Amino acid sequence: MSVAHLIIEPTFMQTRLALFSTLPYKVADMKSDTVRFGRKELELALHEMPGLLSLREQYRGKKPLAGAQIMGSLHMTIQTGVLIETLVELGADVRWVSCNIFSTQDHAAAAVVVGPTGTPTNPRGTPVYAWKGETLAEYWWCTLQAIFWPDGSGPNLLLDDGGDATMLVHLGSEYEASGVIPSPESASSEEFSIVLQLLHDVRRERGNNVWRPLISKIRGVSEETTTGVHRLYERQTAGTLRFPAINVNDSVTKSKFDNVYGCRHSLTDALMRATDVLIAGKRCLVLGYGDVGKGSVQSLKGQCAKVYITEIDPICALQACMQGLDVVTIDDVVGDMDMFVTATGNHSVITVEHMMRMKHNAIVSNIGHFDNEIDIAGLEALQATGDVEKIEVKPQVHEWRFLRTTHGPDGKGHSIIVLAEGRLVNLGCATGHPSFVMSASFTNQVLAQLELHANAEAYGKTVTTLPKHLDEHVARLHLEKFGAKLTTLTDSQASYIGVKSEGPFKPEYYRY
């Protein structure tokens, strides 16, 4: 009698998922109603995304991205679905992961997997590995699945938001070259310990020559956001950037539309969906007055809140003063504020010591970047010692009850309400920026991918912003939606101010 041997594939941490799976996609829900809802929202969003619609029409039948294998790491929303399907229409072979554990819209992910011509039982769309509410280990597993194509190859272009995909391929290749991967126990954060564990597991299963061949085929990356761009410039300065990068974040039609006008729309949307608390008359502290902070302030002032800001930059602080805002430090006002919104892109902006001093039921949220502007790890450490209790109000809304403070009700412990686990509140508790705003951002992304696919090697290992004429082109694509009509300069007028009549109209150093 023979005994069959069961082959057990290695799984990654607590995910119960094979490290290198053969799953063609992994999303939360592929029910017909979910897919139908996602497809209808994709159709409606496309109408509100004139930039992407114009690019589809411009390149219809031409396939300028043929041969491009694009791995995308960006919030898997309806608007991102329109971006993905635009890249596919232009000829790209795309694989996708969300860049945030809470930002995925599950109906969007399902619809993109099925595609415009598929069915739930016969998907014909794009491989997506994303669902709302992933663990950190699941998130990094998803990232690994999106990086490797079924034939074992990898991307030749990255489309990144926050720099996680870029970081993973760089660290993987660097640790292979040195022969040493740091121990996960040496990591400064839980998330980085998971990254190191992933790299150890990949080496254990596939050997020490996985990431170097993969990174050698990557021709470039387009980066969506401030922190990811910062990481790229750090690598450029250090001489460790392995491929060209296009800084999409600092295109005016991204930084102003997404960061200012998008946040103006989506911050209060998220706060109201999460809490139903009246914003008018509340004292709100916005930490950081860059583009995201400016949009956040406009959002709160639109609801007649009393808004204060913190700043490190004297120019931004002076701008705030000229808008009639009080510029304060968090230490001076932490006990007086009703709502806190971090918008800095930095870490440890609101510490656990700050939260211990906040008034009862103060609302704490982040719209900046990543998950470390608010000291969630500090709260979890207090939870482990029994000093704080975490109570779920509903998904992505938690009461953290301090058990040893004395300025809560009846002289007992106070509570604070933390939104989206300190991650992006507008995506964790709402649906993110509206389609029109994301059209401007994502039109820049498509232009960046087109440029890299055509000319990546001409850039060298540098970080570059799209030229001004393309920024103006993105704006032009969106003006018709508003019924706007541009004035045309005469040749004499153009000559007088030293520009061409068709533009560009401002020098590169101009600040809008």
Detailed description of the structure:
The protein is α/β, with parallel strands linked by helices and 512 residues long. It has 2 domains: 32-253 and 433-465, Adenosylhomocysteinase-like (Rossmann fold, 3-Layer(aba) Sandwich), CATH 3.40.50.1480; 261-428, 3-Layer(aba) Sandwich (Rossmann fold), CATH 3.40.50.720. Helices cover 42% and strands 13% of the residues. It is built from 19 helices and 15 strands. The protein has helices spanning 32-47, 50-58, 78-89, 106-114, 136-147, 164-178, 190-206, 211-216, 226-238, 252-275, 291-302, 314-322, 330-333, 352-357, 376-384, 425-428, 435-455, 468-479, 491-497; strands at residues 69-73, 93-97, 128-129, 157-160, 220-223, 245-247, 283-287, 306-310, 326-327, 339-342, 362-366, 388-394, 397-402, 415-419, 463-465. An 8-stranded mixed beta sheet has the order 9-8-7-10-11-14-13-12, with helices on both faces. β2 (93-97), α4 (106-114) and β3 form a beta-alpha-beta unit. The radius of gyration is 24 Å and the shape is globular. It starts with 31 loop residues before the first helix and ends in a 15-residue tail after the last helix.
